[in-house]
Amino acid sequence: MILLQDQAGKALRAEFSHSERMPFQGGEHNREHDHRGNKEQHVIYYHSGQGRIYLVDRWYTIAPGEVYLVDAETLHNFSAARKDPHTYLEATFVLHPHRPLTGLIEELAGGAPWPTPFKLDARGRELVEGALDVLRAEARETQGKGALVELRIWDLILTLARVHADAAAQAAPRPAGPPPTGRQLVEQVNLYLRRNFRRPLALEELAAYVRRSASTVAHTYKKLTRRSIGEELRLQRLTRAKELLRNSDYAIGRIADLCGFGDAAHFSRIFKKEEKQTPREYRARILGNGEENAKRKT
Q1: Suppose 11 and one of 28, 37, 166, 279 were both cysteines; which one would form an S-S bond, judging by CB atoms 3.0 to 4.6 Å apart?
Q2: Which residues, 6 or more positions from 78, have their beta carbon under 8 angstroms from its beta carbon?
Q3: CB of 60 within 8 A of CB of 31?
Q4: pLDDT one-digit tens code per residue, 249-295
Q5: How far apart are CA 92 and CA 2, in angstroms?
Q6: How far is CA 215 from its chain centroid?
Q7: Are 220 and 135 in contact (CB under 8 A)?
Q8: Which residues contact 35 (CB under 8 A, 6 or more apart)?
Q9: 226 vs 296 pLDDT, higher one
Q10: What CATH architecture does domain 232-297 belong to?
């Protein structure tokens, strides 16, 4: 289920039982949500204006370009400024099977904790606004139902995960001390690959991270590991892809996107070259073995 809203500080209010104490100030510019037993989750993107949002146990002052995630059954509230009310885009949906939205995006972003608030840069705003606009258009045509809407929801989730992963990588502390050499250089390169394999990477970016020339990084890595940095990056992507093929029901295209391959066709070519079978054949074989083992135990 999905509900998309495009608001400009309109007076919205959901009534609570008078017996329940709520930490909100009353008023026509407030919007309150009953969180009890509610499985809906929210992505809220603020486009402009001023206001506040209450989330879990505190108020946050809203700034344009911020994204807030609201997990199911989470206490939350909005308060718009009277002179310059905020405008925002909100996607509300239920995930099946249910799981916290924040935890899902953190997992897809490599484990980086989701910050509240999360301030988007210019590129992030462009990507998130685009994903929300496409989702809104699809939902209006289909009354918020159907496979295409579900795909657009996942596009939004994956976009948030990519933007979050990029921001976390940019904010990660640079190695301290003198520029690394030998095995220390290899360790730092591998760490950076593990944090960032989900997105396109260039040798120059790695070189800037370890503070060495691109040629020195490539030569040292190949000499000490007997494989190129590109081969190691591909190995890490394939390792994560096989985990998802074994342990999730994600579509092949979604796994390709999550693991940095870009699209399903490219992912399938690389996977078959390295594993001598397609991703679908690999998944079918793993699932078949699991069912066979279960039959033997019974």
Answers
A1: 28
A2: 12, 30, 31, 51, 52, 53, 54
A3: no
A4: 788 988 998 888 988 999 999 999 999 999 999 999 988 875 555 45
A5: 5
A6: 33
A7: no
A8: 73, 74, 75, 76
A9: 226
A10: Orthogonal Bundle (1.10)
CA distance 236 to 49: 43
Which pLDDT score, from 0 to 100, does residue 94 have? Answer: 85
Burial class (CB in 10 A: 0-12, 13-18, 19+), 298: exposed
Domain positions in the chain: 2-170, 172-226, 232-297
DSSP annotation of 1: -
Give the CA distances from residue 75 to residues 39, 72, 113, 217, in Å, rounded to whole numbers and listed in that order. Answer: 12, 9, 20, 49
Q: What is the DSSP string of 55-83?
A: ETTEEEE--TTEEEEE-TT--EEEEE-SS
Give residue-wise pLDDT tens across range 111-151: 889 999 999 999 899 989 988 988 888 888 887 777 788 88
pLDDT in tens, 159-214: 898 899 888 877 777 777 888 889 999 999 998 898 888 888 899 989 998 999 99
CATH class belonging to 2-170: mainly beta
The helix or strand, by DSSP H or E, that contains position 46, with its residue range, turns out to be strand 41-48
- Of the candidates 157, 219, 159, 156, the one whose C-alpha atom is nearest the C-alpha of residue 186 is 219
Q: Measuring CA to CA, how many Å separate 232 from each of 134, 189, 241, 282, 289? A: 35, 10, 14, 21, 29
Burial class (CB in 10 A: 0-12, 13-18, 19+), 17: exposed
**Cβ-proximal residues to 93 (8 Å cutoff; 6+ apart), any chain:** 1, 2, 3, 40, 41, 153
Which among 141, 122, 158 is positioned nearest to 4, based on CA atoms? Answer: 141
For residue range 31-85, what is the model confidence (pLDDT) as tens digits? 555 555 578 889 999 988 888 898 888 999 999 999 999 988 888 888 877 777 7
Query: Backbone dihedral region of 182: left (phi > 0), alpha (psi from -120 to 50 degrees) or beta?
Result: left
* 6 vs 276 pLDDT, higher one: 276
